[in-house]
DNA sequence: CCGAATTGTTCCACGTTGTGGAACGGCAGG
DNA sequence: CCTGCCGTTCCACAACGTGGAACAATTCGG
């Protein structure tokens, strides 16, 4: 390990060509299929001509599909890669999630962090035939969800400011925490307890508990959650699942990292 | 530059840095999670030091996870991206596939081409509770499957030689076509009819029909297929689904491209 | 239907960045 | 102990990406 100072140093603005490519690829992959060039350039934080050139390369290889005049969508090659990645890790992950689902009887989610949001990657539905509006690939805000609060709580102060500054504290329900002070208090509590609760803060009638997945350096990678319908599960009942959720989180960290 | 002797002429373009990055990313995404550096470098067709540098960049951004000592696996960020891509296109795709499944009553697959193989990206199971050993993300050979033959049939001769040279014509069942001449005849037939049949050539007791998805330039992007258990569906019966499969393929081409 | 604002695309001189063969150290298997 | 193989580091060279600015196409508003 040569003397790498933990801070950003040069990488702050753009840096590596490969890095830009990754950010562009990520931007193209965002929901809302056909994206415009300017939009992608902005999202990726890359100058317009560079984005154009990179997207051209992607298009040549079939990673993105160019819808004519400056509109880009994920291409077949990227879709194939996505299917491979999504299908491969299912070895142990689904097992752990299914086990958790059996223990608690409610819908179980795994979400991974992607910048200033989290993305559902796995889901095990509850036995009860209750509507769950979530879907794999759907992304959720960090400030109003149990999963998101787990992530935020374990970010460095610097990065947290960055992320919250970019995403804002949008009100999602009457219970959503929209004050930064209040959120910070909550996050301290999350760190202390090792799990987070969402008491109808993101969606009315939905309560969740979540526990964070931390990598070897302590950075939050994502979180597991249990979601219950409010009139079936009290706040106390949901919170009582915390031990099981934390256990699952630890198992998943072992499998995923 | 390395003056390759006939065998593997793909050295066509290692020029672009982004291109190399893409190939490396693809190599990391392949099934069999922790890959070794040399393996990735070979698969991607990139010199070892370059692969190392690129993987380092990926690791910094969480796209791959470095298992220490030259072992790399898809990272959280890549998984999140994969979930987004896989989840987003479900708009119309699943509808079309479900419609096809209703018409034919058997298991329906969508696979996309990735280099010298195809990858299942979508699946709608048959009503009948029959084992189907396929899974999203699983990859299948091109020469012994209906889906693969659709792809091969619509490749340029040059690229077909390349692909078949790399992958070979491995025998999968007694019925597998392992002679290049015979395969070429079959592929001409596939082009003529607009669909391909797999009569227990890839897996014993499984018969399939497939129709290709062609992009605007006529290149094969993937294929849709219907798979039936051999002792329930005769070759004639499976082949009778061809019109429906072709129809679905056209609908999907419109949605995906 | 036309002009104005926005967006996609091309160009190009500049120097930063990636490049990859070769050499080094570490690890395993004979 | 020696012998491959593999991951990692090094470095001189120039190719490649870079991005501001100019240009073309398209959209929007009146």
Automatic annotation (TrEMBL), chains A, B:
Signal peptide: none
InterPro entries: GAF-like_dom_sf, HTH_MetabolicPath_Reg, Tscrpt_reg_IclR_C, Tscrpt_reg_IclR_N, WH-like_DNA-bd_sf, WH_DNA-bd_sf
Annotated coiled-coil segments of the chain: none
Keywords: DNA-binding, Transcription, Transcription regulation
SMART domains in alphabetical order: HTH_ICLR
Entry keyword annotation includes Nuclease: no
Residue ranges annotated for the IclR-ED domain, each copy included: 77-257
Pfam families per the UniProt record, alphabetical: HTH_IclR, IclR_C
Record flagged with keyword Transcription: yes
Residue span, HTH iclR-type domain: 15-76
Protein name: IclR family transcriptional regulator
